[in-house]
Amino acid sequence: MSSSLSGNKDIFVQHVAQHQEAFMDRIDEIKWMLKAKNALATLERLNEITAKPLGTPIQVEEITKLAKYSKSRVGRGYKVGPLNESAVLLLSAYLEGFIERLYEECLRHLLHENFASAKVLDILANEARKQFANPSSGHTAGLFRKLTLDITASFGPAFRCPEVNELVEARNRIAHGSAEEISDDAIVNYLDCVRDFGKELSGEICKEITTLS
Fold first, then answer.
1. Is 149 left (phi over 0), alpha (psi -120 to 50) or beta?
2. What is the pLDDT of residues 101-133, one digit of tens each?
């Protein structure tokens, strides 16, 4: 292996790590959005408790109830459902963008020696993006298979990633106007699964690229 090729692979791994870090930051942004949703629900509950005639003091037991409510019943009974739906749309969109950036890095690396023109890379990347319908595990595997990269080798049957596919299906229904009942627990599960999927995908792609001769 030439030192130039080895150096290119080091740069590739570095770029993938940067994309992964940016993707994890995006997931954290969604978590902060959900915390804001919870704060909104608690505030609405506080408004209910304080909606009393002037001069009526708030009892200690009411404050205690509010504290318990904020921990155990956040978001229930209030119009925060659309925020959960928004979280699904954002998470799916961030995952799709992350996968596309990884694909472009692979494309840039594999064609580096033969195509110096950025326009050629842009055209190929845009064509692949048009055909990448959604970030389900099957579509993701198919996308990288175009570059002869078998990212399913180490994933095995688990690469079906049912939670990620469930997220994408929910996203499609919401995007087409369906009102989805997305629970807080489901959102937390989606976030964790997508985070793990992104890390495993980055690792698998780096391994495939670095083992090429």
1. beta
2. 999 999 888 876 555 566 777 788 888 888 887
Residues 34 and 126: their CA atoms lie apart, in Å, by 33
Q: Distances in Å between the alpha carbon of 108 and those of 29, 61, 94? A: 29, 63, 21
CA 67/CA 25 separation, integer angstroms: 30
Cα end-to-end distance, the chain, whole Å: 7
Estimate to the nearest angstrom the gap between the alpha carbon of 74 and the chain centroid. 23
Cα–Cα distance measured from residue 184 to residue 95, given in angstroms and rounded to the nearest whole number? 19
Report the half-sphere exposure of 110 (CA within 13 A, side-chain side): 20
Amino acid occupying residue 23: F
Domain count of the fold of the chain? 1
Instruction: Return d(Cα 180, Cα 85) in angstroms, integer.
Output: 7
Cβ atoms of residues 151 and 106 within 8 Å: no
202 pLDDT more than 90: yes
Contact between 102 and 13 under an 8 Å Cβ cutoff? The reply is: no
* Higher-pLDDT residue of 120, 54: 120
Q: How far apart are alpha carbons 134 and 204 in whole angstroms? A: 20
What residue numbers bound the domain in which 71 lies? 3-210
**pTM for the whole structure:** 0.76
How high is the pLDDT of residue 210? 81
Q: Which residue is it, tokens 């954290």?
A: 28
